[in-house]
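Exam revision sheet. Question 4 asks you to relate a sequence to its structure. Input first:
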Amino acid sequence: MGHVFLSYSRKDNEIMQKVRDKLRDDGLPIWTDEKLEPGTRSWKESIENALESADCLVVILSPESKKSPWVREEMNYAEAQDVRIFPIMAAGDEKSSVPFGYITAQWIDIRSESEIQRGMRLLSSTIKNYLGIEQRESTKSAPPPAPVENVPAIDVSALPSDAAKAVQLLQNPQSKWWRRTDAATRLGQIGDQRVIPILEAFLDSPDLDLRYACQKALRQLRGGKPPQDGRSSQPVASSGHSQPAAKSAASQPAATPAKRVQTVKIVITGPFSAGKTEFIKAISEIDVVSTERSISTPAEKEEKEATTVAMDFGRITVDEELVLYLFGTPGQRRFDFMWEILAEGMLGFIVLVDSAKPETFREAKSILETFRAYAPTPYVVAANKQDHPDAWATEDLRIALRIAPDIKLLPCVARDPRSVRNVLLELLYTVLEEMEG
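Answer key, structure tokens:
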């Protein structure tokens, strides 16, 4: 493991020390330039070497850091080295503290004493998830993770740095499933033939997404040829939905570049009983992973027998280049500690509103504003139960929820796959419009 590079303005030294100490207390190795003399040749060389060997960079955003040419240089060099950047807002606001190019980035707020503890916990957890590190156990005598079986040995030091990191992440059994899937996808994009045995070792993985990512990576590395051991290179069908067939090598020109698989996280949120679980079940190509539990509160039990207590999870393969992962949030406020966790890394979100229950509109508006604060990502509002006789028209809902005219407010029936599909497509169009704008 490398280290976390801490980028900051010297005028923010006090907050830097708090961030440094908190991350170190959580077991993360931190590199700072505080013991070096600024502006010297050795200082510049040390920063360059530290960035090249860093696993990620944490930048402390403030009006002072925005003015600092050295902070900007560190961020630029980190980007050039493909080092992931995690911004944290320590002072000021978006206008005074966020540099050009990062206004739409997700940053963690630590501007007040009431926010710094929560923000630092979130930062530490996010970095560890990114690096594939589990949270520290309460005891130091915890046994080491079990090794991955049947994985051939490979000299990682002989690989390019980005390929070496991806291999290490793929082989780490404690890595989160989506990190390992991304690592397999990345290996296919890099195109180094030496990683083929590693990818082949995961073709029997019980994880469908990891297996699919390894199959596609192998097709890229072999120029469209199927795996040599005879396994099918087509994605595995599940829940009765057919998957797009892989093109044969003969049908592709040899010079055609390998397609990049994009995995996108979409969050479905909204008040209790708004229809989030139904929304995901209506379109998911896999059996929805649900965390519903029986309801014991009489008032709530009148509406439904069970409620989501952690999240619902589904998946949609749009085509060979795009896979959507759908995460449904719990709607009850007593589970709102999950909201911020589920919001991490989302490309966009959908707020689902029961348009036949005006008593839930205030809560829907509150949830919308909460998620906008978590991440400034594109979103749409879906008016569920438009087939209900008491449903409010979308024009009236817009007024009641005080939704701006430029925000898409769409009619929806959560049980209808076509209706759900239209809402998801509108969100994707909104994301594309924002990217192109």
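Marking note for examiners. DSSP finds 16 helices and 13 strands in the chain.
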